[in-house]
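Person: Please comment on this record:
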Amino acid sequence: MKTIKLAFALIIAALAMTACVEDKVYEGPNTIEAVSINPDAPTSFDDVVVTAKVSGLLKVESAVLKYKTGEASTYTEVNMAGDGKTYTATIPAMPDGTKVSYVVTITNEAGYTSTAEKDYTVGDKPSDYTKLVINEVYGAGADGEKYLELYNNGDDPIKLQGVVIRKDEAYDVWVGEAGEVIMGHGYFCIVGAKDIPGEGGSGPNPRPMTKGLSAKKSVLFQIFDPNSTLVTKFERGEKLDGWGNQSLTENKQTWSRCPNGTGKFMIADKTLGTKNPDTGAEDPTVVQ
């Protein structure tokens, strides 16, 4: 009987000692549950926000995003900001067609790391040139003050590279270059004529037109897309024996689409780089 009591006492003692020993803290890497990007289909106009969802028992010491383009051998490294469960960092906008590879690395307080690797390819929507219009024309000032204002009636950017502005059916007075873009419902102001740059206004002020613009003579401006398709025009007066040979009443204001972007050309006050008025004065010499 004493033997049984002794054995029982030893078991109780062993259990008590076990209960006094703290559970060993788990040591191992945290888990990256998911990695996503916003927008999920980046264009060349988008900065890309990378988001990582993290779980685990140990505190996260650091979260790092590394990214590279194409076949580059080196990465750019960015520290991610977060709250222990969600971490974010931004990859800047990249040119159309660029493949971007990126790696998220999470390091916890025990020194364990976990990684997730992904990639995406930048892809722009084709430019819809049917949304491009001449929106405002001003020819009454000095050559450095004259301008054509273009407007994008669509939601998506329009790339102007290869777009041609032709005057009087004879002169290509401006050709769009790489990087020149009209954002959705945005303005692009070509200020200055006869190669004289203008002071501009709201919006871009790119290279001036290479020929002049008169406020009191017949004139024709046509815009062609990169495939040489006519997309918009401004026409005042008649060609007769040559554009510019017909004298007309001088317009000291502008010819502006009223309402903005969609209406007829009306005589109105200057609104360079901003919304045109809803109404203006009729000009019977303008071909609508």
Remarks:
- The longest helix spans residues 2-20.
- The first strand starts at residue 31 and ends at 38.
